[in-house]
Amino acid sequence: xxxxxxxxxxxxxxxxxxRIVLFGAPxxxxxxxxxxxxxxxxxxxxxxxxxxxxSPYQDRxxxxxxxxxxxxxxxxFGNTERALADIEAFTDKVYADGKTPCMIGGEHLVTLGxxxxxxxxxxxxxxVHFDAHADLRDDxxxxxLSHACVLRRVWELLGDGxxxxxxxxxxxxxxxxxxxxxxxxxxxxxxxxxETVEKLKGKPVYFTLDLDVLDPSIFPGTGTPEAGGVTxxxxxxxxxxxxxxxxxxxxxxxxxxxxDQSGVSTAxxxxxxxxxxxxxxxxxxxxxx
Length: 289
Known about the structure:
By secondary structure, this protein is of the alpha/beta class. It has one domain: Arginase, Chain A (3-Layer(aba) Sandwich). It contains eight helices and ten strands. The chain has helices spanning 40-47, 80-96, 110-121, 150-158, 173-182, 193-200, 232-240, 264-288; strands at 20-25, 54-55, 60-61, 67-72, 100-105, 126-130, 163-168, 184-187, 204-210, 246-253. The strands form two sheets. The protein has an eight-stranded parallel beta sheet with strand order 4-1-5-10-9-6-7-8, sandwiched between helices. Strand 7, helix 5 and strand 8 (184-187) form a beta-alpha-beta unit. The chain is globular, with a radius of gyration of 17 Å. The relative contact order is 0.18.
């Protein structure tokens, strides 16, 4: 593979040297309210130039790790299943080459494609999910492939007790009733995350972050803003608690940059992605040692 011409901040390693492969999944074909997430990864690459590569949160620097930026997948509009298949195929290749995938969505449904690949390689896969929305509907307006249904489709791959949700504050009543029987859900905040991390240590974990877990006063640039979210510092503290997990894949979703013309939401997304890349690389080094 050849790296993208414009890469996310310092993610310019050669493919052969990289531990982590970053790629964009610019798809928002099932967005239920305000579309635009398909522009997130391109805008994040361009705006990442305004961010330092060094993280004072982790005392680590993107200059010191090897991340390959593969650019954007060319996903078809109007064919959701084919878009998911393309994401799955690309993620399969990343796994086959012994690397860890990091995906920038796109709407949250793109997670399903990556998880389909991950569970083939890691049958004992667990999910850690930060979000404002439960995403556990069986269908949305009759459509089972929707960003409102993504965790329900993931559950069908994994089964009971293997999805751990945090920050949830919105959903249909039926989602919450169903979820009590099948997934672990923490409403409103990240209480209990440390205990969950301890339970999951040694197991393969896919981490999926919907940025609308943040309060819209901090992150207005999203298609489905939901009042009552967490602060940036609360999110950062929660991400840092994931240290020590065997993170075999991860993604960041639901930035719609043009709803925040100040650029602040994109800056937030870029900073979160920097921290996730550094954390994932550190966790990979721990797993190897």
